[in-house]
Write a structure and sequence with these properties.
248 residues, alpha/beta, TIM Barrel, 8-stranded parallel β-barrel, 12 helices, 17% strand, globular
């Protein structure tokens, strides 16, 4: 389980699923990746397509995480009921926002997740004690993607219920006036600050790093939840490289 692996400080390599295709997700799920991120922010996924991909991933020994398009508590409720136990929330900026997200994932009295007797997450009512123990196995990764999030990273990491600070290097570089250049010195300093904030709170840190040299460096630095590519990127680059090999 991803949450347990990260708590032990062990690295876990993942892949992004952006094609909104159960077949593509099934293909990458068999790769041996430790986790897959089904993207609901920048991909044409909805509740039903995400649920179908969760069903596919369940046949493989990897964790399914779902990135929601926002921190909307209604979406959190719906996707968790559909079986998403590991969530990634984009552009978290403050500790107060992080606390609200945790509350949306948690049943009363500690939170306000809507209660349903039977849904896919508790095998339609077959898991005894699900509601009392629901948060034990759930993982929350909050994305740090702007200057404000970086400035508040220590406070965000200290929020009980936040498991991972996950850097979004594309948005972070854009919001730091270095669009498309996460390797810029000031962006790299911000990325390192997020990792240090997570470590200081005993939490894991993660990042998306499609270039292997970058991924290897981030792993050496102490990032543990590292995504190293996507189904879309693998298909596009593979097709490009194959055709280019006949055009020389």
């Amino acid at each position: 389980m991803l949450k347990a692996t990260l708590r032990e400080g062990k690295p876990c390599i993942g892949l992004w699923c952006s094609l909104a295709s159960t077949l593509a997700t099934e293909i990458v799920a068999g790769s041996g990746a430790g986790w897959l991120l089904v993207d609901g922010e920048h991909s044409p996924n909805d509740l039903r397509s995400v649920m179908a991909q969760l069903q596919v991933i369940a046949a493989f020994p990897c964790e399914a995480a779902v990135r929601l398009p926002s921190d909307d508590p209604v979406l959190i409720k719906q996707f968790m009921d559909a079986g998403a136990r590991s969530l990634m929330i984009p552009n978290v900026r403050t500790a107060a926002q992080a606390r609200d997200i945790v509350a949306a994932m948690t049943y009363a009295p500690d939170g306000f997740r809507g209660f349903s007797v039977g849904h896919r997450a508790n095998q339609f009512g077959r898991i005894a004690g699900y509601h009392q123990k629901a948060r034990e196995n759930q993982l929350l990764a909050v994305q740090i993607e702007c200057r404000t999030g970086v400035a508040n990273a220590r406070e965000i990491a200290a929020v009980d219920g936040v498991d991972v600070l996950f850097v979004g290097p594309g948005d972070l570089s854009t919001n730091m006036d270095a669009m498309g250049n996460p390797g810029a010195d000031h962006v790299q300093q911000a990325i390192a600050a997020v990792r240090q904030a997570a470590a200081g709170a005993g939490k894991a840190s993660g990042i998306l790093a499609p270039a292997k040299a970058d991924a290897d460096r981030y792993l050496r630095d102490g990032f543990t939840m590292v995504a190293v590519g996507s189904d879309l990127g693998l298909l596009a680059r593979g097709a490009d490289n194959l055709i280019a090999s006949f055009s020389r």
